[in-house]
User: Fold these one by one.
Assistant:
Number 1:
Amino acid sequence: MIELAEIEAARERIRGAALRTPLVRLYLDDAEPEIWCKLETLQPIGSFKIRGATNAILKAPAARRAAGLVTASAGNMAQGVAWAARDLGLSATIAVPEHAPEAKLAAIERLGGRVLKMPYDDWWRVIVTSAVDGVPGLFIHPVQDEGVMAGNGTIGLEILEDLTDPDVILIPYGGGGLTVGIASAIRVLRPSTKIYAVEPETGAALGAALAGGRPVEVDYRASFVDGSGSRSVLEPMWPLVSELVDGAIAVTLDETAAAVRMLASRARVVAEGAGALALAAALSGRAGAGKIVCIVSGGNINLVTLAEILGGATP
Protein backbone atom coordinates (compact mmCIF):
# COMPACT_ATOMS: atom_id res chain seq x y z
CA MET A 1 0.00 0.00 0.00
CA ILE A 2 1.18 3.53 -0.79
CA GLU A 3 1.18 5.79 2.26
CA LEU A 4 -1.55 8.44 2.28
CA ALA A 5 1.07 11.09 3.07
CA GLU A 6 2.90 10.20 -0.17
CA ILE A 7 -0.31 10.57 -2.18
CA GLU A 8 -1.08 13.92 -0.56
CA ALA A 9 2.48 15.08 -1.28
CA ALA A 10 2.08 13.96 -4.88
CA ARG A 11 -1.02 16.12 -5.23
CA GLU A 12 1.00 19.20 -4.34
CA ARG A 13 3.91 18.14 -6.56
CA ILE A 14 1.78 17.72 -9.70
CA ARG A 15 -0.41 20.75 -9.13
CA GLY A 16 -0.32 22.83 -12.30
CA ALA A 17 0.64 19.89 -14.52
CA ALA A 18 -2.28 17.51 -14.03
CA LEU A 19 -5.88 18.70 -13.99
CA ARG A 20 -8.40 18.03 -11.24
CA THR A 21 -10.82 16.13 -13.47
CA PRO A 22 -14.61 16.11 -13.00
CA LEU A 23 -16.68 13.27 -11.61
CA VAL A 24 -19.91 13.26 -13.62
CA ARG A 25 -23.12 11.27 -13.31
CA LEU A 26 -24.06 9.10 -16.27
CA TYR A 27 -27.84 9.06 -16.41
CA LEU A 28 -29.32 5.76 -17.57
CA ASP A 29 -32.85 4.62 -18.19
CA ASP A 30 -32.73 2.38 -15.11
CA ALA A 31 -32.32 3.75 -11.59
CA GLU A 32 -29.69 1.17 -10.65
CA PRO A 33 -26.81 1.27 -10.59
CA GLU A 34 -26.01 4.95 -10.05
CA ILE A 35 -22.97 5.39 -12.27
CA TRP A 36 -20.38 8.14 -11.93
CA CYS A 37 -17.49 8.61 -14.37
CA LYS A 38 -14.10 10.06 -13.42
CA LEU A 39 -13.04 11.69 -16.68
CA GLU A 40 -9.27 11.34 -16.93
CA THR A 41 -9.80 11.73 -20.69
CA LEU A 42 -9.66 15.49 -20.01
CA GLN A 43 -6.03 15.52 -18.91
CA PRO A 44 -3.65 17.46 -21.22
CA ILE A 45 -2.40 14.16 -22.69
CA GLY A 46 -5.86 12.54 -22.69
CA SER A 47 -4.94 10.09 -19.91
CA PHE A 48 -4.39 9.75 -16.15
CA LYS A 49 -0.75 8.85 -16.82
CA ILE A 50 0.33 12.47 -16.55
CA ARG A 51 -0.23 12.24 -12.80
CA GLY A 52 2.13 9.39 -12.02
CA ALA A 53 4.73 10.30 -14.62
CA THR A 54 5.00 13.90 -13.43
CA ASN A 55 5.19 12.93 -9.76
CA ALA A 56 7.87 10.26 -10.25
CA ILE A 57 10.01 12.51 -12.45
CA LEU A 58 9.81 15.59 -10.21
CA LYS A 59 10.48 13.46 -7.15
CA ALA A 60 13.73 12.07 -8.62
CA PRO A 61 16.96 14.04 -8.05
CA ALA A 62 17.86 16.34 -10.94
CA ALA A 63 21.21 14.55 -11.35
CA ARG A 64 19.42 11.27 -12.10
CA ARG A 65 17.27 12.95 -14.74
CA ALA A 66 20.16 14.63 -16.52
CA ALA A 67 20.83 11.79 -18.99
CA GLY A 68 17.20 11.82 -20.09
CA LEU A 69 14.10 9.79 -19.36
CA VAL A 70 13.20 6.27 -20.50
CA THR A 71 9.99 4.27 -20.17
CA ALA A 72 8.05 1.40 -21.71
CA SER A 73 4.45 2.02 -22.63
CA ALA A 74 1.65 1.15 -25.02
CA GLY A 75 1.21 4.87 -25.42
CA ASN A 76 -0.29 6.80 -22.52
CA MET A 77 2.58 6.60 -20.02
CA ALA A 78 4.84 7.46 -22.91
CA GLN A 79 2.94 10.69 -23.40
CA GLY A 80 3.13 11.47 -19.70
CA VAL A 81 6.89 11.02 -19.66
CA ALA A 82 7.34 12.93 -22.93
CA TRP A 83 5.19 15.80 -21.64
CA ALA A 84 7.26 16.14 -18.46
CA ALA A 85 10.54 15.73 -20.38
CA ARG A 86 9.60 18.56 -22.72
CA ASP A 87 8.84 20.88 -19.79
CA LEU A 88 12.16 20.02 -18.14
CA GLY A 89 14.21 20.22 -21.35
CA LEU A 90 15.11 16.53 -21.24
CA SER A 91 15.13 13.76 -23.84
CA ALA A 92 12.56 10.96 -23.64
CA THR A 93 12.96 7.49 -25.17
CA ILE A 94 9.91 5.24 -25.23
CA ALA A 95 9.82 1.48 -25.86
CA VAL A 96 6.43 0.55 -27.36
CA PRO A 97 4.90 -2.77 -28.48
CA GLU A 98 4.34 -3.20 -32.19
CA HIS A 99 0.54 -3.11 -31.78
CA ALA A 100 0.53 0.33 -30.11
CA PRO A 101 -2.06 2.53 -31.87
CA GLU A 102 -0.86 5.21 -34.26
CA ALA A 103 -2.82 7.89 -32.39
CA LYS A 104 -0.65 7.33 -29.34
CA LEU A 105 2.60 7.04 -31.30
CA ALA A 106 1.88 10.30 -33.14
CA ALA A 107 1.24 12.03 -29.81
CA ILE A 108 4.56 10.80 -28.39
CA GLU A 109 6.45 12.17 -31.37
CA ARG A 110 4.49 15.42 -31.29
CA LEU A 111 5.69 15.90 -27.70
CA GLY A 112 9.30 15.27 -28.76
CA GLY A 113 9.68 11.67 -27.58
CA ARG A 114 11.72 9.05 -29.45
CA VAL A 115 9.77 5.87 -30.19
CA LEU A 116 11.39 2.42 -30.17
CA LYS A 117 8.98 -0.17 -31.59
CA MET A 118 9.58 -3.79 -30.64
CA PRO A 119 7.79 -7.16 -30.58
CA TYR A 120 5.46 -7.66 -27.62
CA ASP A 121 7.75 -10.26 -25.98
CA ASP A 122 10.72 -7.88 -26.10
CA TRP A 123 8.60 -5.02 -24.82
CA TRP A 124 7.31 -7.14 -21.94
CA ARG A 125 10.92 -7.98 -21.06
CA VAL A 126 11.59 -4.25 -20.70
CA ILE A 127 8.60 -3.99 -18.34
CA VAL A 128 9.96 -6.86 -16.25
CA THR A 129 13.62 -5.74 -16.18
CA SER A 130 13.06 -1.94 -16.02
CA ALA A 131 15.69 -1.32 -18.68
CA VAL A 132 16.03 -0.79 -22.43
CA ASP A 133 19.29 -2.28 -23.69
CA GLY A 134 21.70 0.38 -24.88
CA VAL A 135 19.55 3.33 -23.80
CA PRO A 136 20.85 5.39 -20.85
CA GLY A 137 18.69 7.57 -18.65
CA LEU A 138 16.32 7.46 -15.70
CA PHE A 139 13.84 4.63 -16.24
CA ILE A 140 10.34 5.55 -15.12
CA HIS A 141 8.49 2.29 -14.69
CA PRO A 142 4.92 2.70 -15.92
CA VAL A 143 3.50 0.52 -13.16
CA GLN A 144 5.63 -0.39 -10.15
CA ASP A 145 7.40 2.90 -9.44
CA GLU A 146 6.10 4.12 -6.06
CA GLY A 147 6.16 7.72 -7.27
CA VAL A 148 3.97 6.75 -10.21
CA MET A 149 1.52 4.94 -7.95
CA ALA A 150 1.37 7.86 -5.52
CA GLY A 151 0.58 10.22 -8.39
CA ASN A 152 -2.17 7.89 -9.56
CA GLY A 153 -3.55 7.83 -6.02
CA THR A 154 -4.48 11.50 -6.27
CA ILE A 155 -7.49 10.33 -8.29
CA GLY A 156 -8.77 8.58 -5.16
CA LEU A 157 -8.51 11.78 -3.13
CA GLU A 158 -10.51 13.69 -5.72
CA ILE A 159 -13.22 11.04 -5.98
CA LEU A 160 -13.98 11.13 -2.25
CA GLU A 161 -14.01 14.91 -2.20
CA ASP A 162 -16.71 14.92 -4.90
CA LEU A 163 -18.67 11.81 -3.81
CA THR A 164 -18.24 10.96 -0.15
CA ASP A 165 -20.03 7.61 -0.15
CA PRO A 166 -19.28 5.47 -3.24
CA ASP A 167 -20.24 1.82 -2.86
CA VAL A 168 -17.94 0.52 -5.61
CA ILE A 169 -14.98 1.86 -7.55
CA LEU A 170 -14.08 0.15 -10.83
CA ILE A 171 -10.54 0.60 -12.12
CA PRO A 172 -9.16 -0.57 -15.49
CA TYR A 173 -6.24 -2.92 -14.89
CA GLY A 174 -3.12 -2.95 -17.03
CA GLY A 175 -0.12 -3.43 -14.78
CA GLY A 176 -1.71 -2.44 -11.49
CA GLY A 177 -0.19 0.99 -10.85
CA LEU A 178 -3.51 2.81 -11.22
CA THR A 179 -5.32 0.25 -9.08
CA VAL A 180 -2.78 0.31 -6.26
CA GLY A 181 -2.61 4.10 -6.23
CA ILE A 182 -6.36 4.71 -6.08
CA ALA A 183 -7.04 1.78 -3.74
CA SER A 184 -4.33 2.93 -1.31
CA ALA A 185 -6.17 6.22 -0.81
CA ILE A 186 -9.65 4.68 -0.67
CA ARG A 187 -8.73 1.93 1.82
CA VAL A 188 -7.59 4.57 4.34
CA LEU A 189 -10.29 7.18 3.77
CA ARG A 190 -13.34 4.95 3.06
CA PRO A 191 -12.51 1.29 3.75
CA SER A 192 -16.13 0.12 3.22
CA THR A 193 -16.00 0.93 -0.50
CA LYS A 194 -15.54 -2.12 -2.71
CA ILE A 195 -12.73 -1.94 -5.26
CA TYR A 196 -12.67 -4.08 -8.38
CA ALA A 197 -10.07 -4.17 -11.13
CA VAL A 198 -11.46 -4.58 -14.64
CA GLU A 199 -9.66 -6.40 -17.46
CA PRO A 200 -10.46 -7.41 -21.02
CA GLU A 201 -11.10 -11.14 -21.29
CA THR A 202 -8.30 -11.20 -23.89
CA GLY A 203 -5.72 -10.71 -21.14
CA ALA A 204 -7.35 -11.23 -17.72
CA ALA A 205 -4.14 -11.96 -15.82
CA LEU A 206 -5.26 -10.54 -12.47
CA GLY A 207 -8.45 -12.60 -12.42
CA ALA A 208 -6.41 -15.73 -13.07
CA ALA A 209 -3.93 -14.81 -10.34
CA LEU A 210 -6.66 -14.17 -7.78
CA ALA A 211 -8.28 -17.50 -8.67
CA GLY A 212 -5.01 -19.38 -8.36
CA GLY A 213 -3.52 -17.50 -5.44
CA ARG A 214 -0.43 -16.45 -7.38
CA PRO A 215 0.55 -14.89 -10.73
CA VAL A 216 0.12 -17.25 -13.67
CA GLU A 217 0.50 -16.79 -17.40
CA VAL A 218 -2.65 -16.39 -19.47
CA ASP A 219 -3.31 -16.42 -23.19
CA TYR A 220 -2.90 -12.72 -23.95
CA ARG A 221 -4.29 -11.50 -27.26
CA ALA A 222 -3.73 -7.97 -28.54
CA SER A 223 -6.93 -6.03 -29.20
CA PHE A 224 -8.25 -2.48 -29.50
CA VAL A 225 -8.12 -2.46 -25.67
CA ASP A 226 -4.39 -1.81 -25.93
CA GLY A 227 -3.93 -0.07 -22.57
CA SER A 228 -5.13 -2.97 -20.42
CA GLY A 229 -4.72 -6.69 -20.10
CA SER A 230 -1.43 -8.56 -19.92
CA ARG A 231 0.24 -11.95 -20.05
CA SER A 232 0.82 -12.11 -16.30
CA VAL A 233 0.62 -10.03 -13.14
CA LEU A 234 4.00 -8.47 -12.42
CA GLU A 235 5.57 -10.24 -9.43
CA PRO A 236 6.37 -7.03 -7.47
CA MET A 237 2.77 -5.85 -7.91
CA TRP A 238 1.07 -9.06 -6.77
CA PRO A 239 1.35 -8.55 -2.97
CA LEU A 240 0.19 -4.95 -3.31
CA VAL A 241 -2.76 -5.58 -5.61
CA SER A 242 -3.96 -8.78 -3.94
CA GLU A 243 -4.36 -7.08 -0.56
CA LEU A 244 -6.15 -4.02 -1.93
CA VAL A 245 -8.80 -5.27 -4.36
CA ASP A 246 -12.03 -7.10 -3.64
CA GLY A 247 -11.85 -8.92 -6.95
CA ALA A 248 -11.36 -8.64 -10.70
CA ILE A 249 -13.98 -8.48 -13.43
CA ALA A 250 -13.29 -9.58 -17.00
CA VAL A 251 -15.37 -7.99 -19.75
CA THR A 252 -15.71 -8.96 -23.39
CA LEU A 253 -14.59 -6.87 -26.32
CA ASP A 254 -18.23 -6.50 -27.36
CA GLU A 255 -19.13 -5.14 -23.90
CA THR A 256 -16.18 -2.75 -24.06
CA ALA A 257 -17.12 -1.46 -27.52
CA ALA A 258 -20.69 -0.91 -26.31
CA ALA A 259 -19.35 1.13 -23.40
CA VAL A 260 -17.28 3.27 -25.78
CA ARG A 261 -20.47 3.95 -27.74
CA MET A 262 -22.45 4.81 -24.62
CA LEU A 263 -19.83 7.27 -23.39
CA ALA A 264 -19.88 8.97 -26.78
CA SER A 265 -23.66 9.06 -27.14
CA ARG A 266 -24.74 9.80 -23.56
CA ALA A 267 -21.84 11.83 -22.17
CA ARG A 268 -20.14 13.09 -25.36
CA VAL A 269 -16.92 11.56 -24.04
CA VAL A 270 -14.37 9.86 -26.31
CA ALA A 271 -12.81 6.91 -24.51
CA GLU A 272 -10.23 4.41 -25.67
CA GLY A 273 -10.79 0.71 -25.06
CA ALA A 274 -9.14 0.63 -21.64
CA GLY A 275 -10.94 3.82 -20.71
CA ALA A 276 -14.31 2.14 -21.23
CA LEU A 277 -13.59 -1.08 -19.31
CA ALA A 278 -14.93 0.16 -15.98
CA LEU A 279 -18.20 1.32 -17.50
CA ALA A 280 -18.52 -1.99 -19.36
CA ALA A 281 -18.27 -3.81 -16.03
CA ALA A 282 -20.82 -1.51 -14.39
CA LEU A 283 -23.30 -1.95 -17.25
CA SER A 284 -22.89 -5.73 -17.17
CA GLY A 285 -24.28 -5.88 -13.64
CA ARG A 286 -21.27 -7.84 -12.38
CA ALA A 287 -20.18 -4.96 -10.14
CA GLY A 288 -23.46 -4.90 -8.24
CA ALA A 289 -25.71 -1.94 -7.47
CA GLY A 290 -25.47 1.31 -5.55
CA LYS A 291 -23.17 4.22 -6.32
CA ILE A 292 -20.50 3.00 -8.73
CA VAL A 293 -17.53 5.12 -9.79
CA CYS A 294 -15.96 4.20 -13.13
CA ILE A 295 -12.44 5.40 -13.87
CA VAL A 296 -12.47 6.52 -17.51
CA SER A 297 -8.71 6.33 -17.71
CA GLY A 298 -7.98 7.67 -21.20
CA GLY A 299 -9.30 8.72 -24.58
CA ASN A 300 -6.41 8.15 -26.97
CA ILE A 301 -8.00 5.99 -29.64
CA ASN A 302 -7.34 5.80 -33.36
CA LEU A 303 -10.11 7.67 -35.19
CA VAL A 304 -10.60 4.78 -37.62
CA THR A 305 -11.11 2.43 -34.69
CA LEU A 306 -13.48 4.87 -33.01
CA ALA A 307 -15.50 5.24 -36.20
CA GLU A 308 -15.77 1.46 -36.49
CA ILE A 309 -17.05 1.18 -32.92
CA LEU A 310 -19.49 4.07 -33.30
CA GLY A 311 -20.80 2.33 -36.41
CA GLY A 312 -21.82 -0.62 -34.26
CA ALA A 313 -18.89 -2.99 -34.78
CA THR A 314 -16.30 -4.46 -32.45
CA PRO A 315 -12.79 -4.13 -33.93
Number 2:
Amino acid sequence: MPNNQFKKGELYSFITGKASTAIARRLQKKFNSASLNLTIEQWSVLYHLWKQEGISQQELCNATFRDKPSITRLVDNLEKQNLVKRVPSETDRRINLIYLTKQSQKLQEESMALAEETLNEALETVPADKIDVCKEVLQIVYDNLK
Protein backbone atom coordinates (compact mmCIF):
# COMPACT_ATOMS: atom_id res chain seq x y z
CA MET A 1 0.00 0.00 0.00
CA PRO A 2 1.47 3.42 -0.97
CA ASN A 3 2.54 5.67 1.87
CA ASN A 4 1.80 8.93 0.04
CA GLN A 5 0.19 11.41 2.43
CA PHE A 6 -0.05 14.13 -0.23
CA LYS A 7 -3.03 15.09 -2.33
CA LYS A 8 -2.81 14.40 -6.04
CA GLY A 9 -0.34 16.87 -7.57
CA GLU A 10 1.54 17.64 -4.35
CA LEU A 11 4.81 15.94 -5.10
CA TYR A 12 7.70 15.85 -2.65
CA SER A 13 10.10 17.16 -5.27
CA PHE A 14 7.99 20.27 -5.82
CA ILE A 15 7.86 21.03 -2.11
CA THR A 16 11.55 20.40 -1.43
CA GLY A 17 12.47 22.09 -4.72
CA LYS A 18 10.56 25.26 -3.84
CA ALA A 19 12.22 25.44 -0.43
CA SER A 20 15.66 24.76 -1.87
CA THR A 21 15.21 27.38 -4.59
CA ALA A 22 14.00 29.98 -2.09
CA ILE A 23 17.04 29.39 0.13
CA ALA A 24 19.43 29.53 -2.85
CA ARG A 25 17.89 32.78 -4.13
CA ARG A 26 18.12 34.42 -0.71
CA LEU A 27 21.74 33.31 -0.29
CA GLN A 28 22.63 34.56 -3.79
CA LYS A 29 21.13 37.96 -2.89
CA LYS A 30 23.25 38.04 0.26
CA PHE A 31 26.39 37.16 -1.73
CA ASN A 32 25.59 39.94 -4.21
CA SER A 33 24.91 42.47 -1.42
CA ALA A 34 28.22 41.56 0.20
CA SER A 35 29.97 42.02 -3.20
CA LEU A 36 31.08 38.39 -3.23
CA ASN A 37 31.66 37.53 -6.87
CA LEU A 38 30.33 34.02 -6.36
CA THR A 39 27.38 32.00 -7.60
CA ILE A 40 25.56 29.47 -5.47
CA GLU A 41 26.85 26.70 -7.75
CA GLN A 42 30.46 27.87 -7.31
CA TRP A 43 29.93 28.20 -3.58
CA SER A 44 28.67 24.61 -3.37
CA VAL A 45 31.92 23.39 -4.96
CA LEU A 46 33.99 25.54 -2.59
CA TYR A 47 31.92 24.29 0.34
CA HIS A 48 32.95 20.70 -0.38
CA LEU A 49 36.56 21.73 -0.90
CA TRP A 50 36.56 23.57 2.43
CA LYS A 51 35.52 20.30 4.02
CA GLN A 52 38.22 18.37 2.11
CA GLU A 53 40.47 19.83 -0.53
CA GLY A 54 42.73 17.89 -2.86
CA ILE A 55 39.91 15.76 -4.20
CA SER A 56 39.32 14.84 -7.83
CA GLN A 57 36.73 16.37 -10.10
CA GLN A 58 34.88 13.03 -10.03
CA GLU A 59 34.71 13.21 -6.24
CA LEU A 60 33.32 16.74 -6.59
CA CYS A 61 30.70 15.37 -9.02
CA ASN A 62 29.66 12.80 -6.45
CA ALA A 63 29.63 15.28 -3.56
CA THR A 64 27.62 17.95 -5.40
CA PHE A 65 25.35 15.64 -7.45
CA ARG A 66 26.51 17.30 -10.68
CA ASP A 67 27.70 15.76 -13.92
CA LYS A 68 31.28 15.97 -15.21
CA PRO A 69 30.70 18.76 -17.76
CA SER A 70 29.06 20.94 -15.08
CA ILE A 71 31.89 20.40 -12.60
CA THR A 72 34.50 21.01 -15.29
CA ARG A 73 32.84 24.33 -16.17
CA LEU A 74 32.51 25.33 -12.51
CA VAL A 75 36.15 24.45 -11.74
CA ASP A 76 37.28 26.30 -14.91
CA ASN A 77 35.46 29.44 -13.74
CA LEU A 78 36.74 29.10 -10.16
CA GLU A 79 40.25 28.69 -11.54
CA LYS A 80 39.85 31.85 -13.67
CA GLN A 81 38.82 33.71 -10.51
CA ASN A 82 41.93 32.35 -8.76
CA LEU A 83 39.82 30.51 -6.18
CA VAL A 84 41.02 26.97 -6.96
CA LYS A 85 43.93 25.33 -8.71
CA ARG A 86 44.23 21.99 -10.45
CA VAL A 87 47.20 19.86 -9.51
CA PRO A 88 47.98 16.66 -11.44
CA SER A 89 47.75 13.52 -9.32
CA GLU A 90 51.09 11.93 -8.52
CA THR A 91 49.63 8.45 -8.92
CA ASP A 92 47.40 8.90 -12.00
CA ARG A 93 48.20 11.43 -14.72
CA ARG A 94 44.59 11.38 -15.94
CA ILE A 95 43.35 12.88 -12.68
CA ASN A 96 43.60 16.46 -11.48
CA LEU A 97 43.16 17.17 -7.80
CA ILE A 98 41.44 20.41 -6.88
CA TYR A 99 42.98 22.64 -4.22
CA LEU A 100 41.89 25.93 -2.71
CA THR A 101 43.85 29.15 -3.06
CA LYS A 102 44.43 31.63 -0.25
CA GLN A 103 41.80 33.87 -1.85
CA SER A 104 39.09 31.17 -1.58
CA GLN A 105 40.08 30.38 1.99
CA LYS A 106 39.41 34.04 2.83
CA LEU A 107 35.91 33.72 1.33
CA GLN A 108 35.07 30.79 3.60
CA GLU A 109 34.33 32.69 6.79
CA GLU A 110 32.19 35.39 5.18
CA SER A 111 30.23 33.10 2.86
CA MET A 112 29.61 30.47 5.54
CA ALA A 113 28.33 33.19 7.90
CA LEU A 114 25.91 34.34 5.19
CA ALA A 115 24.79 30.75 4.59
CA GLU A 116 24.19 30.20 8.29
CA GLU A 117 22.27 33.48 8.52
CA THR A 118 20.12 32.44 5.55
CA LEU A 119 19.32 29.03 7.03
CA ASN A 120 18.46 30.63 10.36
CA GLU A 121 16.05 32.94 8.56
CA ALA A 122 14.51 30.00 6.68
CA LEU A 123 14.04 27.96 9.85
CA GLU A 124 13.18 30.86 12.19
CA THR A 125 9.63 29.75 13.07
CA VAL A 126 10.17 26.00 12.67
CA PRO A 127 10.30 24.10 15.98
CA ALA A 128 13.54 22.16 16.51
CA ASP A 129 11.73 18.82 16.78
CA LYS A 130 10.12 19.40 13.36
CA ILE A 131 13.53 20.14 11.86
CA ASP A 132 14.84 16.84 13.22
CA VAL A 133 11.86 14.93 11.79
CA CYS A 134 12.29 16.63 8.42
CA LYS A 135 16.00 15.74 8.28
CA GLU A 136 15.22 12.16 9.22
CA VAL A 137 12.45 11.77 6.63
CA LEU A 138 14.49 13.34 3.82
CA GLN A 139 17.43 11.07 4.65
CA ILE A 140 15.15 8.01 4.47
CA VAL A 141 13.74 9.20 1.11
CA TYR A 142 17.29 9.68 -0.19
CA ASP A 143 18.42 6.27 1.11
CA ASN A 144 15.40 4.61 -0.52
CA LEU A 145 16.36 6.02 -3.90
CA LYS A 146 20.11 5.71 -4.00
